[in-house]
Design brief:
10-stranded mixed beta sheet, 14 strands, two-stranded parallel ribbon, binds S-adenosyl-L-homocysteine, alpha/beta, 11 helices, 32% helix, single chain
């Protein structure tokens, strides 16, 4: 039974009467409202504080030299700045790093820093586990344990930025492709995107951020209407409803034609292309008929295609396609007018590749101990 997106937990919203706020749960606008109510301060002041925290990484109000002393003292008791604790960090042969973060006491997720020749991509989780139960994905086997709060998403990003100093690198791109279905936790993901892209803060360009979904149609429409500054990726993964419903249960609620019609009508910021993801599963969705159908299905959608050769998960009963077959698809699609790239797996030796993230019971127990 799928959880209705409309019923998703709305963690992360805080009423000012409740005492301290978690700073990383508030967008700049929400911070302004909170501070106005609590201290009577102006938006100008709250923006300065937002800049100190995200722009300069300063969380000690005493150091915020351009903020009036009385204001600094008032603020001290108002906020918490919880950091994500690194429970483990594994480094792959290819340089990809997988983090196990305790984002709040007892709440554990994975984040991955993916090393590519010309860039580094940070892959963050949006939920603990996932309700979507895609047959080929290991996170789905966990079921949904909970939505991450905005601050728990931000904590992964800040945690990785801090640890990256040990390696002398930083991420250039960010994807919501870790554990969970981001559009099933849209409120918190959207607020996190607003915080991350804010010009007074980390100022990550929205065109470098991608939110990936299984195809939750109502949430996609909401995402479009919000005008969020982030790219959208959609996991299509099949060309017929028969196959897609078998490997992605969400297809029974939102079949391919409904999904593609939604994408066609989606208001797109700056005419950005939608990324269509296609996990290649040998003998399941990689026939020549599938190949021929793909460009036809996508012809009305301004899109680019991302082929993802299946990353093996033991016990799930799927096989990866031959490398030559993936290359043949890649060439044929490009020759037939589809802007196509292949996402060769990274970090497979440490189970850090797409669809391999999961937190085992034993790990969660360590976090609680
Ligand atoms: N829930 C979101 C984002 C997380 S998964 C979504 O489904 O889009 C990110 C991508 O990894 C998706 O395209 C998903 O289809 C793909 N994926 C899942 N399991 C995989 C596996 N075992 N091998 C390769 N890709 C996989």
């Amino acid at each position: 039974m799928l959880v209705d997106p409309a019923l998703s937990e709305s963690a992360g919203t805080l009423s000012p009467a409740e005492g301290r706020a978690v700073f990383y749960d508030l967008s700049r606008d929400e911070l302004a409202t909170f501070l106005a109510e609590r201290t009577g301060s102006t938006t100008y002041r709250s923006t300065q504080i937002f800049e100190w925290v995200y722009g300069k990484g300063v969380t000690d109000f005493a150091q915020m030299s351009n903020v009036a002393r009385s204001m600094r003292e008032q603020c001290r008791g108002l906020f918490e700045f919880p950091e994500a604790k690194i429970l483990s960090r594994q480094i792959s042969r290819d340089g990809t790093r997988k983090y196990l973060f305790e984002v709040s006491p007892g709440r554990v997720v994975e984040s991955v820093m993916i090393k590519q020749p010309a860039r580094m991509t940070l892959c963050v989780s949006s939920q603990i586990g996932c309700a979507m139960k895609c047959a080929f994905c290991r996170t789905g086997t966990m079921g949904l344990k909970g939505n991450l709060r905005t601050s728990e998403i931000i904590a992964q990003v800040l945690g990785v930025i801090k640890d990256a100093q040990n390696f002398g690198d930083k991420f250039s791109n960010m994807v919501f492709m870790g554990m969970g279905e981001p559009l099933h936790n849209l409120e918190n993901v959207a607020r996190a995107v607003r915080i991350l892209t804010d010009h007074f803060g980390l100022s990550i360009p929205g065109r470098k951020i991608t939110v990936s979904t299984v195809g939750l149609v109502p949430a996609i429409q909401k995402f479009g209407a919000m005008g969020l500054d982030a790219n959208l990726a959609v996991s299509l993964n099949a060309t017929t409803d028969q196959v897609r419903s078998k490997i992605m249960p969400i297809n029974k609620r939102f079949p391919i034609d409904v999904l593609l019609q939604t994408l066609e009508e989606l208001p797109r910021r700056s005419r950005r292309k939608i990324t269509i993801e296609y996990v290649m599963l040998a003998g399941v969705n990689d026939s020549d008929d599938d190949l021929r159908r793909l460009p036809k299905l996508l012809r009305k959608i301004p899109s680019k295609l991302n082929l993802i050769p299946y990353n093996t998960n033991a016990d799930l009963g799927f096989d990866a396609p031959e490398r030559a077959e993936v290359m043949r698809w890649h060439k044929w699609l490009n020759d037939n007018g589809m802007d196509t790239t292949v996402r060769w797996s990274k970090g497979q030796d440490i189970q850090a590749a797409c669809g391999q993230l999961a937190v085992e019971k034993e790990t969660a127990a360590v976090a609680l101990a």
